[in-house]
């Protein structure tokens, strides 16, 4: 007993000594050498030190000091800087940290699921990138810096990430988001400023995992996301047995020279946890000033019993991120999900429509990709055009260039006798039907029974009719998972699918 008491006393003394020792000043990993700081905005630095310890930061001739609070947290703002660099930053307290090779330019946060996550070197066996090897070989850009956030979920908001800034080289770009890379490359070339890209993505994840609990709890209509997650958790225990059975079925099919059945995808409960990805992969970055967000997600919310809720979840996510970043209404640019046959258990048209209607949110823009999808592969190979269309939106919305950045966008429908005239925004000079007569339009009367329609271009409008619908009321365009559509503007950008029906309110 005496020996045991002595051990406890010794451990207590060691713990007390550790508490009394001065803690070195620390920075979060998002603040590191080779990073890009957002130009023309106050430079925010933060981290940890001893309670009440004075911390001083110096950068490019400016300096400021602050004291850590009783929990050891400190925060310092330095004056805004124009684009430039490289510079060094020092942060000093009982010790000194020096960060080198910092650039000042524009910082973009890229997030979403697999079509944003897919890197230049692709997904082995399931997704490739057009001209991937050649793009990787030419990916040396000293003015572009990359931060790739590791996949992680958490029940509560974290204050740091497991990632470090790197230069953009063939080695680092190969495993970085292809869409974000193509977007950042064009912005750097067109705006002539350094560009920082943060890749915070996780394939196969729903939007609610990227939404904070603050936002979910503020809207009772979002409560079904917990029921969806509970169902996934309850099925998780059976997943290993199900996957083993599927492997046996595949082996039997191969032995019988038959095509194996297409097995359903099994979600990861960890990555589907409501707010889990926000807590671990977004929240730690919200103290950092950014230029804006690029987003590509929606496929995982397309299941029939969940798709209608996306019209509430997606605008809530945009508002939520803007609230937590606390730097005003920054540009939020997103990709409308593409064309994929999927299954009858998913409704991609409803997700696309929710995304289109989210354009009512200020300072948003949508890159339409219905023309560059692959109906047989959920991961289209053309990521260059996706990045380019996002960059067009950024150049117009964020940088103020007078360019056309969107394809034709439905504005209004006017019934004229037995026809409906549809007017569009973003016509550019004229509407164009590529490779033959217009396709993809359907028309319905008050019964909402849609039938294929004849459609023709009349200047900046489309006139739609069908002999089967003498008293038309509604029109829709591209209303399938993988529709056949061909309406463009003269700038070569595709029209978004749409419906003139009222959206059914989510439960």
Give the key terms.
single chain; 507 residues; Rossmann fold; 2 domains; four-stranded antiparallel β-sheet; 26% helix; globular
Give me the secondary-structure topology.
Layout: H1 2-20, E1 36-38, E2 43-48, E3 54-59, E4 62-67, E5 73-78, E6 84-92, E7 96-112, H2 114-117, H3 132-137, E8 141-148, E9 166-168, H4 170-173, H5 178-191, E10 195-201, H6 213-217, H7 224-236, H8 239-255, H9 276-282, E11 292-296, H10 304-307, H11 310-325, E12 332-335, H12 348-357, E13 364-367, H13 384-397, E14 409-416, E15 419-425, E16 431-433, E17 441-444, E18 451-452, E19 454-458, E20 461-465, E21 474-477, E22 487-489, E23 498-499
Parallel strand pairs: 1-7, 7-10, 7-11, 8-10, 11-12, 12-13
Antiparallel strand pairs: 2-5, 3-4, 3-6, 6-7, 8-9, 14-15, 15-20, 16-22, 17-18, 17-21, 19-20, 21-23
Helix pairs in contact: 5-13, 11-12
């Amino acid at each position: 007993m005496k020996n045991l008491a002595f051990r406890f006393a010794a451990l207590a003394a060691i713990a007390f000594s550790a508490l009394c020792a001065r803690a070195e000043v620390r920075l979060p990993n998002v603040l590191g050498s080779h990073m890009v700081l957002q130009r023309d905005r106050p430079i925010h630095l933060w981290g940890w030190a001893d309670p009440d310890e004075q911390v001083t930061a110096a950068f490019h001739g400016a300096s400021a000091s602050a004291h850590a609070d009783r929990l050891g947290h400190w925060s310092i703002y330095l004056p805004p800087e124009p684009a430039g660099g490289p510079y060094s930053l020092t942060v000093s307290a009982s010790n000194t940290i020096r960060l080198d090779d910092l650039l000042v330019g524009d910082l973009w946060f890229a997030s979403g699921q697999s079509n944003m996550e897919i890197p230049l070197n692709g997904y082995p066996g399931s997704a490739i990138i057009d001209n991937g090897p050649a793009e990787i070989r030419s990916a040396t850009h000293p003015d572009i810096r990359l931060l790739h956030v590791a996949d992680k979920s958490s029940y509560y908001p974290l204050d740091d990430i497991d990632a470090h800034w790197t230069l953009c080289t063939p080695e680092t770009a190969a495993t970085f988001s292809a869409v974000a890379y193509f977007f950042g490359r064009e912005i750097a070339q067109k705006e002539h400023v350094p560009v920082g890209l943060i890749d915070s993505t996780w394939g196969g994840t729903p939007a609610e995992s990227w939404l904070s609990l603050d936002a979910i709890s503020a809207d009772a209509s979002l409560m079904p996301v917990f029921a969806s997650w509970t169902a996934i958790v309850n099925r998780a225990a059976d997943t290993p047995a199900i996957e083993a059975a599927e492997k046996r079925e595949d082996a039997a099919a191969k032995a019988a020279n038959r095509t194996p059945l297409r097995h359903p995808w099994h979600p990861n409960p960890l990555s589907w946890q409501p707010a889990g990805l926000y807590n671990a992969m977004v929240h730690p970055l919200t103290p950092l000033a950014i230029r804006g967000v690029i987003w590509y997600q929606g496929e995982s919310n397309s299941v029939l019993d969940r798709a209608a809720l996306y019209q509430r979840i997606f605008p809530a996510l945009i508002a939520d991120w803007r609230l937590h970043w606390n730097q005003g209404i920054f540009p939020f640019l997103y990709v409308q999900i593409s064309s994929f046959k999927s299954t009858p258990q998913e409704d991609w048209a409803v997700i696309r429509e929710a995304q289109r209607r989210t354009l009512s949110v200020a300072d948003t823009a949508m890159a339409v990709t219905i023309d560059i999808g692959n109906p047989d592969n959920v991961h289209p190979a053309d990521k260059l055009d996706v990045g380019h269309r996002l960059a067009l939106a950024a150049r117009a919305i964020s940088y103020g260039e007078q360019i056309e950045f969107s394809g034709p966008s439905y504005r209004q429908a006017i019934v004229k006798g037995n026809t409906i005239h549809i007017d569009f925004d973003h016509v550019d000079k004229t509407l164009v039907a590529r490779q033959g007569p217009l396709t993809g339009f359907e028309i319905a009367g008050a019964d909402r029974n849609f039938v294929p329609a004849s459609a023709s271009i009349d200047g900046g409008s489309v006139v739609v009719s069908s002999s089967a619908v003498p008293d038309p009321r509604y029109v829709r365009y591209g209303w399938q998972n993988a529709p056949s559509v061909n309406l463009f503007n003269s700038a070569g950008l595709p029209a978004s699918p749409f419906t003139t029906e009222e959206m059914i309110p989510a439960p």
